[in-house]
Amino acid sequence: MVLVALNLRPALASLAPLLSRVQADTGLSAAAIGALTTMPVLCLGLFAPLAPWLSRRIGTERTLSLALLLLAVALMLRSGPGTPWLFLGTALAGAAIGIGGTVLPVLVKRDLPRGADLMTGVYTMALCLGGALGAGLSIPLADGLGSWQLSLASWSVLAFLALFCWRLLAAHPWPQSSARSRARVGSGLLRSPLAWQITLLMASQSALAYIVFGWLPVLLQRRGLGEAEAGLLLGASVFVQLFAALAAPWLARLGRDQRPALLCALTFVALGFYCLLQGPAMLRWPGVVALGLGQGGSFSLALALLVLRSVNPAVAGELSGMSQGFGYCLAALGPLAVGLLLQFNVSLTGIWLVLTAVVALAMVLALLAGRQRVLDVDEAGCFVTREQRRG
Fold it and tell me: Range of 129's domain?
């Protein structure tokens, strides 16, 4: 499971440090580059709701295998000749990540119900490690292999390795279909305030994350940094996320709810953006650490909410599909918006103010979604929200 999670970020993080080279070779405008960084996030959201449907028909393990196969093929396709292959491969990679990322919380809730929040921290740490490797190794791989296309394609090797290990080590049973198991999934999730609070929290923090993945090196280069240094700072920030992702769920267990931990993490995000985009050079590395701690913690906690707010794996699957589906579709507006702001020559100060406003919105949503409640299914088969007792 950890090796699978390791593959769900390099496809996104490996592109950002290479955007200057991609733009120079392809002649794409800033708006088109913004669309390129937005496309995988949008496809991630569009295809995430397919994961529960596929899991009910072919099984959770087979669904994850399918996602890994699609990811490996997509990573090879986006290195093909011509811009259309770049966009097609990027879109398919987003679709694969959407399906795979939705399935993982279901497996955690099903196989490790008592330690679901801590296991979420472990695989979130693997996600962050994959992002750090993608961001930090993109430029060295491009220089060593001779082109940015081969650098992007090289990550398919890791995806094929994960697919091989998953098929070899994990049982792949066919699902047991019964009227009872289907009835327990429930209906009316779109009418649940708690589900929407989690979804919008996922959307806001994910928008910030994908803006960082897609545009932070470009924004840092506008502050006068070199291409390699900007990529290094992104990689370092994502690397710091490893520790926050692992520690945040454990710290959240110390309190009655997740609101203090979420607010603390989001405060670090705001501080990191200020140091990197507005502060003096001496605050650059402290900003990297703050941003990494904040984004790693908020992402891990947001994923933990998918299992902590679900009464069983079936509910977790539906909530994961909704929150990651709608959430990532909304999050896709983030990289696109930054691309448009750059296209119209908006200053770094203006972009920083927009990012700070998104952080403030995420804090409000954290106050709502972080309360100690759980989604359940009543006797009529409808989703209801209940107070969650800790025991």
Answer: 2-169+185-387
Q: Distance between CA atoms of 136 and 10, rounded to whole angstroms?
A: 10
Q: Is residue 54 part of a domain?
A: yes
Q: What is the pTM of this model?
A: 0.78
CB atoms within 10 A of CB 333: 16
Instruction: Indicate if the pLDDT at residue 176 is higher than 70.
Output: no
Side-chain-side CA neighbours of 120 within 13 Å: the count stands at 32
Tell whether 176 is covered by a domain.
no
pLDDT in tens, 59-108: 888 999 999 999 999 999 998 888 999 999 999 999 999 999 888 877 87
Contacts of 389 (CB under 8 A, 6+ apart): none
Residue 175 within any structural domain of the chain: no
Cα separation of 176 and 173, whole Å?
A: 9
Return the structure tokens found at 330: 């909304």
Residue with tokens 């290479």: 18
At residue 179, does pLDDT exceed 50? no
For 118-168, how does the pLDDT look when each residue is reduced to its tens digit (9 = 90+)? 777 787 788 888 888 887 888 899 999 999 999 999 999 999 999 999 888
Distances (CA, A) of 37 to 7, 22, 91, 210: 18, 12, 10, 8
Whether 278 maps to a domain, the answer reads yes
Count the neighbouring beta carbons within 10 Å of the beta carbon of residue 326: 21
- CATH number where 130 lies: 1.20.1250.20
Number of domains in the chain: 1
HSE, side-chain direction, 13 A CA sphere, residue 243: 9
CB contact at 8 A, 115 and 225: no
